Amino acid sequence: MRMRIKYAIILFFVAALVIIEKENNIISRVSDKLTLKFPQVDFVGLNNTISARALTENDSLLIGMSSSLLPVLKAQRNCTSLQAGMKMEDMKDLTDRKHLILMATTRTGSSFVGEFFNQNSNIFYLFEPLWHVERTVTFEPRGANAVASSIVYRDVVQQLMLCDMYVLESFLLPMPEQHVTAFLFRRGSSKSLCEWPVCTLPKQGSNERFPCRLHRCGLLNMTLAMQACLQKQHVAVKTVRLRQLEFLRPLVEDFRINLKIIQLVRDPRAVLASRIVAFPSKYEAWKKWASQGIMPNDEEVGKLRGNCENLQASAQLGISQPPWLKDRFMLIRYEDVALEPLKKAYEMYRFAGIPITPEVKKWIYINTQTSRSSDNVYSTHKNSSEQFEKWRLTLSFKIAEVVQKVCEPAMKLFGYKLAKDAATLANRSASLLEDRNFGMA
After folding, report:
1. What does the alpha-carbon distance between residue 348 and residue 354 come to, in Å, rounded to a whole number?
2. 8 A C-beta contact, residue 282 and residue 275
3. Looking at the predicted structure, is the pLDDT value of residue 30 above 70?
4. pLDDT at 227
5. For residues 309-337, average pLDDT
6. Which residues lie across from 221 on neighbouring strands?
7. Does the structure show a pLDDT above 70 at 322?
8. Which of 311, 304, 310, 306 is nearest to 289 (CA)?
9. CB neighbours of 193 closer than 8 A, spacing ≥ 6?
10. How far apart are CA 25 and CA 94, in angstroms?
11. How far is residue 400 CA from its own chain's centroid?
12. Three-state DSSP class for 123?
């Protein structure tokens, strides 16, 4: 009996060593791929049974995975303000600098709300910088793969908060030459990247792209962008790719970053209705159900449920205000912003600890009182108080029923009322909103 126990213990430790060695080899191979700039990375070899919570609580594993995954990102971290051509006296006082993340999902009005910060000339604002990371490094949506993607996204945002624009170069295709690129996603949505000194005139006779809205700019120089970031008083990033609040804890606890996080949510029925219009090919199953009565498969319904559960988990964590998040998290509904944009702008700015500026107030007035709305689904110009509930007239009630069934816990948390029938759904005089302040003053 003793011999059996002895051999069982030996076998256990041998098996553990084999598993650890195997995962180290996998992570090493992934690291090599990232360093070599391969466009696809597959994390299938990682143990999909590892939960995000388990990894977050295991500091040594988290640090080991993070450092293994991101050597190419860390390579630029010795880039100092002096290397960027900056003098210390040119940098804004870091003790007063605020950092803000606007965390949302697609079709929740995040582009519109992001403009509240983009229009502030004291803020260096970046629009969806993680788009390039998502396209360059491919992860499966669940298990350890989702954990790995969250770590990569988080570490990239951490460097951007510190004005390290070079961190994005590892994910740009083609690779920038001498820190100059023509291929930054939606550059024109960031005023800071379309103004002097970042916006330089294109060379005469060149075929350079001009991705800015109001100016003819030459190619984007990342070094100039870094200088502009260091000269601004504050930094803000809008992203729909950071989905789990718990992974942002290292950023909150980074003494170099004075971080505030705003999570923007919207009625999941409205989100699905908007996505069906904006991304018709991806939501073909839902369109067929509305038009032909063909029910979407379990996978599509599962995606919807997973999205709502992730939103709910992050919001509950933030609202609970654990010590590391105290006074650093704000939950806001798009519907409340649409109804009272200036009031909610003041609330967000007060939470962020940043003074609102006349240019922000002017932009909100002009862009929320327009008499006609744009047909562009990405437009930020709208009569917000009239437009935010148009989905109620177009969404099939049978689709709304499915959303209500799988997303009911999240909807109750966020204060969205269930519609009992098609007539209630289409009756815009019957509000689907409950009063909520989410524990905020």
Report:
1. 9
2. yes
3. no
4. 96
5. 96
6. 180
7. yes
8. 304
9. 126, 184, 187, 199, 212, 220, 225, 228
10. 40
11. 26
12. strand
Torsion angle in degrees (nearest 10) through CA of 153, 156, 161, 167: -160
**Distance separating alpha carbons of residues 166 and 168, to the nearest angstrom:** 5
CA distance 440 to 73: 36
What is the per-residue pLDDT for 427? 93
Predicted confidence (pLDDT) at residue 382 exceeds the cutoff of 90: no
Sign, CA torsion 181/184/186/189: negative
In whole angstroms, give the CA distance from residue 118 to residue 20. Answer: 46
CB-based contact 239:88 (threshold 8 Å): no
φ, ψ at 168 (rounded to 5°): -75, -20
Q: Show the tokens assigned to 382.
A: 């709208």
DSSP string covering 11-70? HHHHHHHHHHHHHHHHHHHHHHHHHTT-S----TTS-TT--HHHHHH-HHHHHHHHHHH-
Q: What is the pLDDT of residue 144?
A: 62
Residue 136: predicted pLDDT: 83
Q: Are 3 and 41 in contact (CB under 8 A)?
A: no
Asked whether the beta carbons of 357 and 120 are under 8 A apart, the reply is: yes
- Of the candidates 190, 195, 106, 115, the one whose C-alpha atom is nearest the C-alpha of residue 366 is 115
Q: What is the pLDDT of residue 296?
A: 75
